[in-house]
Amino acid sequence: MLGKRYEGQDCTIARSLDAIGERWTLLIVRDAFYGVQRFNDFQAHLDIPRAVLSERLSGLVEHGLLVRRPDPDHAGRHRYELTVDGRALWPALHALLVWGRRRSPTGDIRAFQHAPCGTTLDDLGACPSCGTTPEPEDVVVVALRPSQRDDPVTRALRTPHRLLEPLAT
Ligand SMILES: [Zn+2]
Question: What is the CA(62)–ligand 1 centre distance, in A?
Answer without folding.
Answer: 35
